[in-house]
Fold this protein.
Amino acid sequence: MTLGHDDLAIAERCLKNRAQWADEAPVTAFERAFAEWNGSRHAFAFLGGRVAFSACLAALELPAGTEVIVPGYTCVVVPNAIRFAGAVPVFCDIELETYGPDVTDVARRITSRTGVLLLHHLFGLVCRDYDALIELARRRGLRVIEDCAHATGAEDQGVKVGRRGDLAFYSTERSKVLNTIRGGLAVTDDEELARGLAAYAERAPRPAPAEVERCLRTVRIVHDRAWHPRRGLARRWAQFRDGRHEAVSTTSGEIRGERPTDYGQRLPAPLAELGLNQLAKLDQLSVERRRTAVRWDAWCRAMGYAPPFVREGSLPVFLRYPVLVEAERKRDGGWARRELGIDLGVWFVSPIHPAPFSLPDCPRAMEAVQRCVNFPTLLPSGASPE
Ligand SMILES: *Cc1c(COP(=O)(O)O)cnc(C)c1O
């Protein structure tokens, strides 16, 4: 939970200032600030990480039918964006140390039609095979896009993730480390690819005012849920006032693979303002997440589980703290609330989360689906890993 009283104040002010919802200046300011903070030359903001990914694919101008290798342990919106771009997702297996693409398995999926490798840094961990994947892609002439949806701010050898591929995208959806309810950014250091991203951003429609309003009201809902955990009346009032206006990140149609009619939009000014405020707090929150991770490490040792693998020279942001437990312990997660006072994360419930698909050709991804649970790293007061 990253939304504080300051974020709520921004949302309240924006709700009263509809005339400014179409302003360009806050969006440009957010893009500049993000690019500078990330160390990237160019950044472009959209209404979702999936849209930022679509912009990356568009910038590459892929011939129809190009194969994009993608980890078979991801969000359904990722293969969707590949299909929407006229390309073909080819799933590869993951390793079970950081849940990134396994380089040996990636190599075996490359064909004459492969054009792109999508690698990801899940749960805020830098993926184990980072160097080997980049090197393999360079050797085989593939473009690389980094899915940094979970890992905004994570570093490897002192450089933030998303700088080594040709392009990268980040999510600022409400469950991620930088939260604008809905949103995402695409970055690149390459001038020609930047022109492609800029062209996509220029064509991108603005969200309808009703959607901007939903996102701003969702700030209120999420804030009140977190800050009034025991004040039943305040929570019920917030739910009554705003509940039916809560923003939806992924529609049931998208889970079935359909392209929403309003797909591909730009980030609106009020959410860019939230993004700017969140960005200023992000490094401190990441310190706090890493501190909680140390406590979860101790819990793992006490319980006989392996702590997550941290690549040498990397600095994770621990969006969540992933652990492989017995399949029965994942299926019945009630113990986490009883014993630890937390809600157990079940990402992912399928290899193409949350779509009910199976990938028998990716056995380690299927094992992670059975066994990987993840713990929160910004703990509500009262919860404890010890
Ligand atoms: C959340 C997520 C995305 C998409 O981001 P949105 O902002 O929700 O569109 C992409 N990849 C992964 C791994 C994610 O978890």
In short: The pocket of pyridoxal-5'-phosphate is lined by residues 48-50, 74-75, 77-78, 120, 147, 149-150, 171, 173, 184, 249 (CB under 6 Å). The radius of gyration is 20 Å. The longest helix spans residues 269-303. The chain has a mean pLDDT of 94.
